[in-house]
Structures are given as C-alpha cells and as structure tokens.
Amino acid sequence: MSAYSRSSTTTHKVLYALPAFVLAFPTIPVFVLLPTFYGETVGLGLAAVGSVLFILRLFDVISDPILGWLSDHIPARFGRRKLPIALGGLIGAPALIALFTPPQDAGVTYLFTWGLLLYLAWTAIQIPYLSWATELEPGYHQRTRLNGFREGAGLLGILAIGGLGVMLSSYEETTRLSYTVWITVGLGICVFFAALKFVPEGRIAQRSEKMSFPIQNKIFLRVLSAWFLNGLANGLPAVCLPLFLTYYLGASEDHKASLLFVYFLFAVLGIPLWLGLSKRFSKHKIWCSSMLAACLVFAAVPFLNAGDIVLFGIICALTGIALGSDLSLPPSIQADCADWDRYRFNKERLATLFSYWSMATKLALGVAVGLAFPILDLFDLSSGSIQSKTALVVIYAGLPVVLKISAVVLMWNFPLTRTKHHAIQYALEKKI
Q: Best label site of 22, 78, 105, 357, fewest CB within 10 Å?
C-alpha cells in the first residue's frame, strides 16, 4: 500500500489529538490574560507590555522558518517530528511556570526572557505537530477529520480550563493562573509521552531542501495572506476581550468565566457542523461562509450597553460556532497547498511551509497587541469616557469585520478544489 493511500486509525487520531488538549490549557492565559496580567496586576503598564509582546512576536517570526527547516532536516531515525516536540515540551514547561508565577520585582526583562523561551518552545512543538497531521493523513477529507480531532481536543482543553476558572473564580488571579500552569505541566507529561510513543511518524520524505520562501507558490501565498488577515481579525477581539468585559459591559469575574466557557463550548459544537459541510462543499467556500457569518454577529456589538451580559452571551455562542471553522478548515487547506507545492515544485519542505503558517499566526497576534494596547492606553480606558469606549468597540468589533471581509475576497474563488486535489494526490502517488 502506498504512502498516499494509508490512513491513520481512530486510536492514532485520538492519541495524536491529546497533546492539543493540554496545549490548549495555557491558551487563554498566554494569549488573552497575559497582557492584562502583566499590564495591570504585575503593574508594568499596558503600553510597555504591548511593546514587549510585539517584540517577542518579531523574534518568534524569525525563529519559525528556522525551526521548521530544522524539523525537515532531522534524520528520520531520530524522529523528524517527534524530537522537536519533545524538546519543546522540556523547555516550555519551566518557562510557562516562571511566566505565570512571577516574583514581586518582575519587570520587562523578566517578561521578555521567559516569554521568549516559551514562544520558542511553543514553535518547536507546534510546527512539527501540524506537519505530522499532514503526513499521517493524505486525503482531502480525511486530513480535515484529523484536524477536526486535534482542534476539537484543543477546544475541549480550553473548556476544561474554563470550567476550572469558574470553580476558582473566588480566588485571586495569581492563584488561578498558578493552578492552570501546574495542571498543564502534569497532564502534559502523560499525554505527550503517549502520543510520541504510540503514534507513527507517517509519510517520511526521502530528501530535504535548502531553506527557501515559496514565493512562486501563489496558491500558498494566497491562503497565507487570508490566514493572516483572519488571524488579526480574531486576535484583536481576543486581546481586548478582558478589557471589553470590564470597561464596556461591566461584567463580574463569574460572568467573564461563564462567557469564555460559552464561547469555546459552541466552538466545539460547531466543528461537526463544519466538517459535515466540508464533505459536500469545498473547504474554502465553507470557511468563507463562516467568516461572513461572524461579521454579521460582530456588527451587533456596538449596539450593546453596560450590563447586556445575556445578549453578549448570544454573540459569544454564535462567534464560537464560527471559530470552529477557523480552527478545523484552514490547516487542512494549508496541507492541501503543501501537496501542491510538492507536486508543482518537486520540493520536500512540509514543516518549512507550516513554519510560515505559524509565523503568520503569531505575527497577527503580535500586531493585535502592538496595535490595540497603545491606542487604548492613549484613550485611558479607566476614565470611562465615551471616546475610550468608542475606541474599544472599534478595535474589538469594527476592525475585525473589515479584516474578515478582506480574507473572504482572497479565498472565495480559491482554485485548489477537491477534484484538483485528488488529481494532485494521484500524480504524487505515481511518483512513489
């Protein structure tokens, strides 16, 4: 049986997805709570924290293609995807603990040092982890299912931490974050061991390539651009959510935890919907439809008033459903682009391609923090003025609509359809 006709077993899918469950635990703390935690609780200021996190993202951008290229060049006998994942876990665990249990005199240097180590570790795990899925599942729909397993597990992990946040809402923020990171490390040891030991490597390339940017691969660049725009559209409301809940809606800590739980619960519930639709229609059209639906929901945010917790809960549910599409479909589309790259340019650079994908994700989040926080700091949110609230709403809901529509324009007539991908798979199989 050829490398392109194999399919991973359900057991392998579950074991492969388990690390995503644990990796999701610190997602809310790192991407949503960390900026305000260091800006307000630790007392470094929003502008200073925003600048540090933006610089960290720039370092992250530089490291992504390097680590992706290294993953493609690790000899198969050492574990091309498994070795960097293991090393990333060993570095990331102490960095995560240090970052969320800072000493009283922690400053910008402390944030930068441990943040840099955590981001490097995250990259060392994430790029080969995404590449691994492409090598395990070659089929157009099968790899979408595997991505669904992984992202569904990640969302369940977020729900688990969200449920813990509700249970611990009476504790101080530092205590809640401390519990989160220690639980993450403890479970991570177990699930990473199981995945690395029992899940096969998948298709292994027989040759490696020099580091190169796929400037000639227009299909890849098109998806990458749309992914960056949509990532920025998701990143702005993500980093501003704690501020929006506090200064615009006046939500309590219990309400904040409950709203986050609703958001990610409906994201989990939405994944089967998007996977089912992707069986009947092209993945890019389903993704575009979900982005347009999210735009319609975001358009209702400016009409909210302080105390509209229930109405905002409905918005969280609807945008959560759309998030399920953002998580499960684009990585599968990117994997299809990697097949096209291998067919059209005869290059084996899977992890390198995914490194640019990861780079775009991180750059989008870095731009979101670097753009939003200095502007909001300039308007002085704590003053409660109309101008500050207007700026918050524009950044939280207005800009994301414009960015998502731009991504839809790029992807609506995307040429790599199911039929064309099947033809590419057949041609690649003939080469083996």
A: 105
